[in-house]
């Protein structure tokens, strides 16, 4: 049972994400569930690495949890965000890069593969902080910072998928190929 704790934490993030769909953005309930989702994202990986409970399934479940959490946030916050044309195009380009990375991994490794690089973690952290930065410094600055980091991390992941001899979801950067 202890072996499954990190996976259970990832499942909790997925459940919190689904519940988050039914909250009003920027409300107390929203931030409570949002914080719970962020904490669970940190905890699952920490527990898995610290107690040597990592697994391919756990890494995939963590990535799926991240994807659902981010998708729910985008769905909830989109009506509040006024994206200019540049940011809209930039986000579309990031989506193309990420989708290309998934396709390359499918062809090369016969599985969907999201990597846990430092840049992907930094992007996730900045994305997690998005609602706070959005309120404090506005959409334009927050959007540019997030898009810059997301572009760099997406390109890094794509290059790793293209050049890696074997799949390593826990590779920390392109410099560790």
TrEMBL record:
Superkingdom of origin organism: Bacteria
Topology in membrane: Multi-pass membrane protein
PROSITE patterns given for it? CDP_ALCOHOL_P_TRANSF
Keyword Zinc appears in the UniProt entry: no
Keywords linked to the UniProt accession: Lipid biosynthesis, Lipid metabolism, Membrane, Phospholipid biosynthesis, Phospholipid metabolism, Transferase, Transmembrane, Transmembrane helix
Enumerate the GO terms in the molecular function aspect.
CDP-diacylglycerol-glycerol-3-phosphate 3-phosphatidyltransferase activity
User: Belongs to which family?
Assistant: Belongs to the CDP-alcohol phosphatidyltransferase class-I family.
Q: What role does it play?
A: This protein catalyzes the committed step to the synthesis of the acidic phospholipids.
- In its UniProt entry, what is this protein called? Phosphatidylglycerophosphate synthase
Q: Tell me the classification of the organism that encodes this protein.
A: Bacteria, Bacillati, Bacillota, Clostridia, Lachnospirales
